[in-house]
Structures are given as structure tokens and as C-alpha cells.
Amino acid sequence: MKVSVIMPVFNCEDYISIAIESILNQSFKGFEFIIVNDGSTDKTYEICQYYSSLDSRIKLISQDNQGLISSLNTAIEESIGELVVRMDGDDISHPSRLEVQVKFMDENPGVIASGTCYKLIGEAKGIVNVPIKPDDCRSLLKASSCIAHPTAILRNPKDYFNNNEYYKYKYRHVEDYFLWVELSKFGELANVDQVLLDYRVHPNQITQKYNKLMIENQKSIVLLESQDDSSLIVNVLSLKEKFILDEYILSFVKSIGLLRKEKYLGKYLLRVLLSILKSKIKK
């Protein structure tokens, strides 16, 4: 099975070498490694060039600074793999990551995308557990992302979408969440119950930099159950409604101890939460 590892990079010279080496040193060897340099102004591109000269599996692309979404779409468009693996330029993949994830996708043809648990490094420490079974992932997807983007492996979006906007700019900073929603129409989402990636937390991360923007954005994606409970509906909420959503999700999560142990939103409990949210939003 052909595999494409895609890694968008921008000004990550301090971490890029260990990120690249963690992919090149995988126990699974049969992959192409597409690195998209998004107009870096430090030595990121030069470092990538060096590794590209050492390993023919690396395909290095450089473009003017257009942002993460453009880099991701470019990488997917250039990919030839049946499976696409996400990687970030400041994270570290464990040596068996590709082997385990490719095997999982091969043994579960009904799964269209999956991720793994991960370890926080840098300015935060700890293990982050994720929902494992497809039913639990689908339930959590109605309120939040169920797959950690840097741990993701997915069947190539080119096989499912007609245009090259796999990640949509209108949903920037939650672009992965919307992609999972779209892909869930074609198959199941799941996670491997293993820690296979070190996720680096540092001040320059996009998620941290834009956390306030993500919360205060005038419109956000929220998934609500349809009336017949047979599919998911994407609703665009106003700022006021988004604050209501955040308030109730946070209080609900804390009430069941979600932040403390390995628990996650079960199907029944999430339905209760969504029922409360919908009644509040209608007021």
C-alpha cells in the first residue's frame, strides 16, 4: 500500500531536524515524504534541502507564504499514496508509528481516517488519551474533533473530493475538524490506543497563537444531530451561540471528570448535552 507523509513547515529551524529524522528512521520504509516550505524566513528551507539531498524519499516543495491550509492542500495534491500521514515540523513520530498506523488502516478498510494517543513535550507534559472506537469518535465529532491532527492517517482525500480544496480556508484554525466531518460521510473514524507521537507545545504554535481568534471568531463549526439521528448537520453559529456552546461543553466535561482521566464523551451523555445545547440556542 502506497503511503505519503505530508509535512507543512514554516520557521521551525529549532525543531525541524528531529522531526524529519523521526520520519526517515521509521521501521516502515515504503513511503514518500512531501515537505512543503511555506515561505520560511529562517533556515528551515536550507535544513530541508540538506535532508532532501540525503534521502530520495523526500519531495521538497517551496512556495510563497500562503498559510497552513494552502500547504496542506498542496501536499495532498502532490501525493501519490493511497494513505496520507500527517506530520508537523516541530513534533516527533515514534519509530513504529507508520508501521502501526498503516497496519491498522489495512486491517480496518471501513475506517477512512484515524489517529493515535500522544505525549505532550516542551512547555506541557503528559499523555493525552483519545476515543478509540468508531462509535465514540462519531459521538465526540458532534461537539469537537475526535482525531488529533498531527497524529492522523487518512485515505487520500483525492479519492473522495472533486476539487483540490481538501482543507477549506473558510474554516481556518479548525480546518482539520471540518475535514473529519466531510470524511465521516464516507467511512468511520477511529484511533489507535497507543502513544505514537510526541506533540511539542511552545509559544510559537499556530494553535496557541490563534486560540483567542478561534474562540472569538464570528462564526464557528458545530455539529448537531439531525432530527432523524441518521446523519450529521454542519451548523454555523453566531458568536453568542458559540459562547453558549463553549460554556456548556466546558461545564459538562468538568462534571464527568473528562479533564482528569481517560474518559471521553459517551454516546448517551453527548446526546444529553446536545439536547441541552439545542434548547438553549433556540432561546
UniProtKB/TrEMBL annotation:
For this protein, the record's SUPFAM superfamilies field holds: Nucleotide-diphospho-sugar transferases (SSF53448)
Give the EC number(s) listed in the UniProt record.
Answer: 2.4.-.-
Per its UniProt entry, which superkingdom is the organism in?
Bacteria
| UniProt cross-references to Gene3D superfamilies, sorted A to Z | Spore Coat Polysaccharide Biosynthesis Protein SpsA, Chain A
Q: Which InterPro entries match?
A: Glyco_trans_2-like, Nucleotide-diphossugar_trans
Annotated keywords:
Glycosyltransferase, Transferase
- The main enzyme category here is transferase
- Pinpoint the Glycosyltransferase 2-like domain residues: 4-123
**Annotated Gene Ontology MF terms?**
hexosyltransferase activity
| The UniProt record lists the keyword Glycosyltransferase | yes
Please indicate if the UniProt record lists Glycosyltransferase as a keyword. yes
Q: Name one Pfam family in it.
A: Glycos_transf_2
Which interval of the chain is the signal sequence? none
Know the name of this protein?
Putative glycosyltransferase EpsE
Give the organism, scientific name: Vibrio parahaemolyticus
